[in-house]
C-alpha cells in the first residue's frame, strides 16, 4: 500500500462524525483503518474497518497507526463535552505528530464555534475568528496549530459546518435538545429565539462532501479550509416543524427550550454548562457561506430536509 492510494486512519470512528466519515470513505473504495483503545469492542460498530489498538492521547501509537496512510481523519471528541480543555488539544497534538512523521493530510471536521456574534450573519472562510466561548477558543487554537504544522511537514484540511444531525449523530442538539425523549415524537423543543435562523449539517451529506474534497487533496495547498453550508433555516421553528412532518406528527406541540433549567444546572453539570456557553448561536443568526466549496467541487450533496430528518429520527429511535 503506497502513499498515493486512498488510505485513511480515522480517529473517533465510533463517534458521530468519525463514524459517518469512515462509512463514506469505505463506500467510495478507500482502505480505512480505525484507532481505538479496545478494538475488539469497537469492531462491533463497523466490522468492515481495520481496527488497531491505540490511544489518541499517545503520539507514538497514533503515529504507528498512521503508517502508510495518506489521510488522518481527526474525529476525536470527548463525549458529553467532558474535560474538553484537558483532552482536545493533546489529542490533536498526537495527530499532528503522526501527520508530520508520515506525510499524511489531517482532516479536521470544524464547527461554527470559532465565530463570535461580531463575525456577522453570513461568514466565509476569511471571516475573523473572535470566539466568545471557551470551546470556541479551543477550536481556534486547533486550527492555528494545524496551520502552523502545515508550514513544516504536515498538511491539513478543515471543513466547518453547523450543528450535526443524522441517524448516528450521537450527542447532538437535535437528539438531546429538540427531541430528547426516546420513542415516538410527542413534542418538539425549539432552542432558538423566535425568528432566529440556524445552521444545520446532515452528517451523511457532510461526510460525503469531505471525502470528495479528500479525493482532490492534491489540488489543495498545505493548509486549506472550507465552509459547508448544509441546511440553513431563516427561523429555527421551521426546522422544528419539519421534525413534526418527518415524524408524522404534524400537530405535536412545539415548546421553547427550557433554558432556565440549563442555567440552573450549569454550575453542577458539565454538559449543561457547555450547552449554556453556546446559547448565543440560538439568539444570533450565523450562516456559513459555501461559495468556495461549490466552486471547488461543483455539486454538493444535499438530502431533502424532511427525508434527512425522517432517517435521523429512525436512527435515534424517535419513530
Can you tell me about this structure?
It comes from Sphingomonas spermidinifaciens. The chain has 319 residues and is an alpha/beta fold. It has twelve helices and 14 strands. α2 (39-42) links the parallel β2 and β3 (50-53). The mean pLDDT is 94. It has a domain at 7-166 and 199-230 and 285-302: Rossmann fold, CATH 3.40.50.720. It has helices at residues 16-27, 39-42, 59-65, 84-102, 134-150, 173-178, 203-214, 236-247, 259-265, 270-277, 291-297, 305-315, and strands spanning 7-11, 31-36, 50-53, 71-74, 105-111, 122-123, 155-161, 163-165, 188-190, 198-202, 223-227, 231-233, 254-256, 287-288. The strands form four sheets. It has a seven-stranded parallel sheet with strand order 3-2-1-4-5-7-11, with helices on both faces. A three-stranded mixed sheet has the order 8-10-12.
Protein traits:
single chain, 319 residues, alpha/beta, Rossmann fold, seven-stranded parallel beta sheet, three-stranded mixed beta sheet, 12 helices, 14 strands, globular
Structural class: alpha/beta
CATH superfamily name of the domain at 7-166 and 199-230 and 285-302?
A: NAD(P)-binding Rossmann-like Domain
Largest sheet descriptor: 7 strands, parallel
State the CATH topology of the domain at 7-166 and 199-230 and 285-302.
Rossmann fold
Q: N-to-C SSE series? A: EHEHEHEHEEHEEHEEHEEHEHHEHH
The total strand number stands at: 14
- The percent range for helix content is 25-40%
What CATH architecture label of the domain at 7-166 and 199-230 and 285-302 applies?
A: 3-Layer(aba) Sandwich
GO cellular component, one term: cytoplasm
GO molecular function, one term: aldehyde dehydrogenase (NAD+) activity
InterPro entries: Epimerase_deHydtase, NAD(P)-bd_dom_sf, NAD(P)-dependent_oxidoreduct
Pfam family, one: Epimerase
Amino acid at each position: 500500500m503506497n502513499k498515493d492510494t486512498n488510505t485513511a486512519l480515522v480517529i473517533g470512528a465510533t463517534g458521530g462524525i468519525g463514524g459517518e466519515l469512515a462509512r463514506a470513505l469505505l463506500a467510495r473504495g478507500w482502505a480505512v483503518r480505525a484507532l481505538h483503545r479496545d478494538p475488539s469492542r469497537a469492531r462491533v460498530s463497523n466490522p468492515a474497518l481495520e481496527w488497531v489498538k491505540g490511544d489518541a492521547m499517545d503520539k507514538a501509537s497514533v503515529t504507528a497507526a498512521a503508517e502508510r496512510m495518506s489521510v488522518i481523519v481527526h474525529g476525536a471528541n470527548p463525549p458529553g463535552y467532558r474535560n474538553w480543555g484537558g483532552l482536545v488539544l493533546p489529542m490533536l497534538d498526537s495527530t499532528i505528530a503522526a501527520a508530520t512523521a508520515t506525510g499524511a493530510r489531517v482532516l479536521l471536521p470544524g464547527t461554527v464555534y470559532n465565530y463570535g456574534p461580531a463575525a456577522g450573519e453570513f461568514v466565509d472562510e476569511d471571516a475573523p475568528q473572535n470566539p466568545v466561548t471557551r470551546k470556541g477558543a479551543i477550536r481556534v487554537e486547533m486550527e492555528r496549530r494545524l496551520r502552523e504544522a502545515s508550514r513544516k511537514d504536515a498538511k491539513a484540511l478543515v471543513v466547518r459546518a453547523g450543528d450535526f444531525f443524522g441517524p448516528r449523530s450521537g450527542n447532538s442538539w437535535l437528539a438531546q435538545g429538540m427531541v430528547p425523549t426516546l420513542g415516538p415524537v410527542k413534542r418538539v423543543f425549539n432552542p432558538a429565539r423566535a425568528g432566529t435562523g440556524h445552521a444545520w449539517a446532515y452528517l451523511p451529506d457532510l461526510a460525503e462532501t469531505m471525502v470528495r474534497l479528500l479525493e482532490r487533496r492534491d489540488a489543495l495547498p498545505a493548509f486549506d479550509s472550507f465552509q459547508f453550508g448544509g441546511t440553513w433555516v431563516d427561523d429555527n421553528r421551521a426546522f422544528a416543524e419539519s421534525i413534526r412532518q418527518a415524524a408524522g406528527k404534524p400537530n405535536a406541540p412545539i415548546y421553547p427550550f427550557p433554558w432556565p433549567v440549563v442555567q440552573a444546572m450549569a454550575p453542577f453539570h458539565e454538559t449543561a454548562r457547555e450547552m449554556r456557553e453556546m446559547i448565543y448561536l440560538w439568539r444570533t443568526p450565523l450562516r456559513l457561506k459555501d461559495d468556495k466549496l461549490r466552486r471547488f467541487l461543483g455539486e454538493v450533496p444535499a438530502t431533502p430536509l424532511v427525508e434527512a430528518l425522517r432517517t435521523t429520527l429512525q436512527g435515534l429511535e424517535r419513530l
